[in-house]
Amino acid sequence: MKRLLVCCLYFGSLVVSANATDKPNIIVIYTDDHGFADLGIHGVEPDVKTPHLDALARSGVIAKHGYSSAPQCVPSRGGLITGKFQGRFNLDSNNSTLEGFNKEITIATRLQRSGYVTAQFGKWHLGPMAEIPTHGFTHSFAQHGQQKFTANITVEGKDQPMNEMRPEMYHIDGCAKAASSIIERYKEQPFFLYIAFRAPHTPLDAPQSYKDRFPGAMPERRRAALGMLAAVDDGVGLITSTLKNNGLSEKTLLFFIGDNGAPLKIHKTDSPLNGDAGGWDGSLNTPLNGEKGMLSEGGMHVPFLIAWPGTIPAGQSYEHPVSALDVAASAAAVADLSVKPGDLDGVNLVPYLKGSLSTPPHEALMWRWMAQSAIREGNWKLLRGGEREYLYDLDTDLEEKHNLASQHPDVAARLRTKLTAWCAELNPPGLALGPMAPVWNEYFDYYLDGKTAPKHEAEPTHGWLARGGSLIEKEGVLVLTPDKGGKGMFITRSQLKLAGPATATLTFKTAASGQGAIAWRVDGDKDFLPANRVPFEVKGSDDWQTHAVPIPAKGRVIHLRVHLPPGPAQFRTLDFKSASR
To answer: What is the distance between the alpha carbons of residues 369 and 374, in angstroms, rounded to a whole number?
Structure first.
């Protein structure tokens, strides 16, 4: 009886494998902070050299209006890999908990269950690298820099126990080589490869041989970014040639997408490369307005290519908006997976790209990221940042220079109603998750309202300074780190003109519990007086907490201090408003 059961199970596995061999391979190549301009075939910037990507585009489709699901790394990756808008499971920003994501079924898991070999390469950014296989990936080669990384295959595609590895090659080259090796290994079976190159995200670490391809006068950050993208282009060439050499080009649906726009930091400062993991990454969003961290076009309108030779006609420039969320829906459809209604938020793009369907794939695309939300319906786009609202006709104003909200209030109202209803479905619901952080207010001021650029070089933390620790701005959040052995620590800001009384709204996270306080000095005070201090209780937590603290100041506040219990902290909002406003 046991022998019969074993034989039946074995026979069943053969049936699954036989059916699976008829299914197409699926490859998703994902770049990191890659601006819209930096694809040669776009013809925007003359210094870009991407011959292999240009050839890929000519073999398939350029999605002229291709979008990521967020203007930031973690949420856009969560949306891509699940095929569900990440705000449905509370993955709203890089600082969100991964609890919701860990409960979702990824497209890798769905494909793995249907007989696909699945493999991940490069940047993960969705939890510990050692846990990547639990999200549906048979193989993992998570090299994303020149430091130790976690993998269960070698660069030659051979199995090994999941453990830390030292880089043998430049990380982009290593990931491309490992992906090519997996294609060779599984050329007789259907496979799903997710290749997430950490490029041109900082730190800009292109080897000199890649940078030497771009001689002449230019910012060094630009040269380094172009060098990293040249490595990506070479990697794409290796992958596509491996497919061709094994007769797999016409059996493979391939997507190439950026995760979000380039971070310009407004000024595109060419600061030193060594040891600087922040700042401008050297990439460009031209002609789009804005940058990473904004739901303007520059923040999430990204390079987006699709190819499936023999199935999708080549040489297309597709005009209708599409989303990275469509990847999972397309993959599920071509692999003939059974998916419950509501499991995926995207659309199978293949019938549209084949010409079987001529209507737009989406009635509308919608986004929410922190204090921002947006909707694009046809050529109309409504963008909100806090209480600010903008309406653009992207057909005539792709650069988002002319706010038409006052001229077309009926259009703005209709789109706002639709966006509000959609945001009510998210977790948590709402058009915004809180007030605009100072950095995003400055970005909106500059890019969308045409105000003078702030002096970020002089005030990288928006005027706030740390005492007893260090304070840096990272992705719109102020990160406070205490000095070693330090006792007292607080952040402070001077040269204010805040009419008292006022209210402070603080949104922060800290692991330390205890008493916090806000202290102030009014015009005429030579020092901080004990009476000018309001305490509040802080509960240590990994979640963001918001405190509204009244400041009963008499006179004009010129100097503030914010005290928290000892330990590291992150500030998302430091908002001080006069009661008279």
So the answer is: 9
